[in-house]
Task: inverse folding
C-alpha cells in the first residue's frame, strides 16, 4: 500500500542528523567553555587560612622517624574551628555589605558580568562553608553548632572594642608629654609677662599695670599678654 | 578555595608539652594566625569543668561582674574620702578586671562596666588636675558607650577646655549634644567654651 521511498527520504534525514549533530556539539563545547571560564574566575576572597589550618590539623602527617601522626588534642581542634568560624563571620559580613552595592553597579552597567558571577559564587561557597562549620561543630561537641557563631560574634565584637580602647589609652603618654611642654611654655611666658610688668611699673609709676593675680599657672588669660601665646 | 572538598595543606607542628601549634614556613600572616589560635586555645582552657566549648553568651558567670563592681565601689569610697590617687588605682584595677573578661562573653556587658570605670577615673584625674589623663579616659568612656553617658562627655569637654584646646572641646561637646539631646550641663559648658574662644580671639587680635 504505502511504498516508502527510502531513497527520497535520505536527504531530509541526513539534514536532520547534521542539524542535531551540530547543535549538540555546539552546546557541549559552549557549556564546557563556560564552566571553564567560571572556574577560572578569580575567587572573591583570598585563601581561607583558618580553614586550611583546621583541616591541616585534622590531617596531620607523621613526623620523620615516627610512624604515627602526632596526636592533636581535641581542644586545639575546637579552638581552630572557632577561629575558622570567626573568619567566616567576617567574610559573611563583607558579602552582605557588598551585595547591595554590587547589584546596583551591575544594573547600572558599571561593572561587568564577571564580577557578579564571582560574587554569586563566593556567596554560595560561604553558605556551604557555614553549613560545614556547623556540622563540624556538632560533630565535635553535640549542640555546639547552634552557638558557635554567637560565640564567634561576641569574640569579634570584643576584639574590636578592646583594640579601640587600647588605641585611645595609647594616646595617654603622648598627651601627657604634650601637656607638660605646653604647661612649661605657658609658665615661662607668664613669668616673662610678670617680669615685664614689673620693669614697666618700675619705669613709670603713674601708669597702672593690670596684673591678674587670680590666673592660675595653667591658664594664661592675662589681658595684655595673651597676644604672645600664638605658638602652641 | 575552588571547591569545598579540597584545601591547601599547611605543614604544622605541635609541641607535645604545651600543645602549641607552630609552622616551619615563616609567613607573617600564618604566624599571626597561629599565635591567635594558640592564645584562643589557652583561653578555652579557662572554661569551667562541664563546658568543653564556650557556652552561649548569656547568661554570664557572675563572679567577675561582682569583682568589678566591688573594685568600682572601693574606688568610689576612696574618691568620697578625697583620696583621688587611691581611687584612680582602684578604678584601674577594675578596668583590668573588666577587660580581661573572656572574649566570648557579651561585649555589651564589657561596654557597660568599662564606661563607668573610665568615666569615674576621668573624674578622679580631674580632681588631681591631670587633664590629659582625664581627657583620654573620658574619650574611652564615650567610645565604650556614647549614648546616655552625659557625664563622660562633659568631662571630656571640660578636660580639653582646661588644656586650652577650645576647638576640640567645642567639637566634643557639640557631638555630645547630638547624642544626649538638650543636657543642661553640656549646653552650659558649650557656652563657656564659646566665650573662651571669643575672648581668645579678641586677645589674639589685640
Result:
Amino acid at each position: 500500500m504505502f511504498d516508502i521511498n527510502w531513497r527520497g527520504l535520505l536527504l531530509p534525514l541526513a539534514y536532520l542528523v547534521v542539524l542535531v549533530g551540530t547543535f549538540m556539539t555546539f552546546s557541549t563545547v559552549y557549556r564546557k567553555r563556560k564552566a571553564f571560564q567560571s572556574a577560572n574566575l578569580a575567587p572573591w576572597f583570598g585563601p581561607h587560612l583558618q580553614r586550611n589550618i583546621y583541616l591541616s590539623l585534622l590531617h596531620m602527617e607523621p613526623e620523620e622517624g615516627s610512624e604515627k601522626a602526632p596526636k592533636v588534642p581535641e581542644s586545639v581542634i575546637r579552638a581552630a574551628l572557632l577561629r575558622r568560624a570567626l573568619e567566616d563571620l567576617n567574610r559573611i559580613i563583607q558579602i552582605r555589605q557588598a551585595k547591595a552595592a554590587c547589584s546596583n553597579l551591575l544594573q547600572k552597567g558599571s561593572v561587568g558580568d564577571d564580577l557578579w558571577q564571582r560574587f554569586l559564587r563566593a556567596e554560595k561557597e560561604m553558605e556551604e562553608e557555614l553549613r560545614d562549620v556547623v556540622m563540624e561543630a556538632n560533630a565535635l561537641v553535640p549542640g555546639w553548632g547552634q552557638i558557635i557563631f554567637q560565640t564567634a560574634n561576641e569574640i569579634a565584637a570584643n576584639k574590636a572594642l578592646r583594640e579601640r580602647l587600647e588605641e585611645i589609652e595609647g594616646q595617654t603618654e603622648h598627651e601627657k608629654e604634650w601637656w607638660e611642654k605646653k604647661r612649661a611654655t605657658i609658665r615661662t611666658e607668664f613669668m616673662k609677662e610678670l617680669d615685664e610688668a614689673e620693669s614697666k611699673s618700675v619705669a613709670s609709676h603713674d601708669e597702672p599695670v593690670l596684673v591678674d593675680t587670680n590666673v592660675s599657672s595653667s591658664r594664661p588669660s592675662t589681658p595684655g599678654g595673651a597676644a604672645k601665646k600664638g605658638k602652641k | 578555595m575552588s571547591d569545598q572538598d579540597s584545601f591547601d595543606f599547611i605543614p604544622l607542628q605541635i609541641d607535645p608539652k604545651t600543645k602549641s601549634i607552630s609552622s616551619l614556613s615563616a609567613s607573617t600572616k600564618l604566624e599571626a594566625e597561629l599565635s591567635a589560635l594558640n592564645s584562643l586555645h589557652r583561653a578555652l582552657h579557662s572554661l569551667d569543668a562541664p563546658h568543653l566549648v564556650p557556652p552561649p553568651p548569656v547568661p554570664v558567670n557572675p563572679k567577675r561582674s561582682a569583682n568589678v563592681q566591688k573594685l568600682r565601689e572601693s574606688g568610689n569610697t576612696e574618691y568620697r574620702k578625697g583620696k583621688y590617687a587611691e581611687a584612680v588605682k582602684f578604678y584601674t584595677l577594675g578596668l583590668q578586671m573588666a577587660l580581661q573578661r573572656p572574649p566570648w562573653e557579651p561585649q555589651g556587658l564589657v561596654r557597660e562596666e568599662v564606661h563607668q570605670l573610665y568615666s569615674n577615673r576621668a573624674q578622679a584625674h580631674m580632681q588631681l588636675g591631670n587633664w590629659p589623663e582625664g581627657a583620654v579616659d573620658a574619650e574611652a568612656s564615650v567610645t565604650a558607650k556614647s549614648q546616655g553617658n552625659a557625664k563622660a562627655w562633659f568631662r571630656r569637654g571640660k578636660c580639653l577646655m582646661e588644656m586650652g584646646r577650645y576647638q576640640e572641646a567645642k567639637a566634643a561637646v557639640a557631638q555630645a549634644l547630638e547624642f544626649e539631646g538638650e543636657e543642661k550641663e553640656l549646653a552650659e559648658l558649650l557656652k563657656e567654651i564659646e566665650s573662651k574662644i571669643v575672648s581668645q580671639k579678641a586677645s589674639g587680635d589685640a
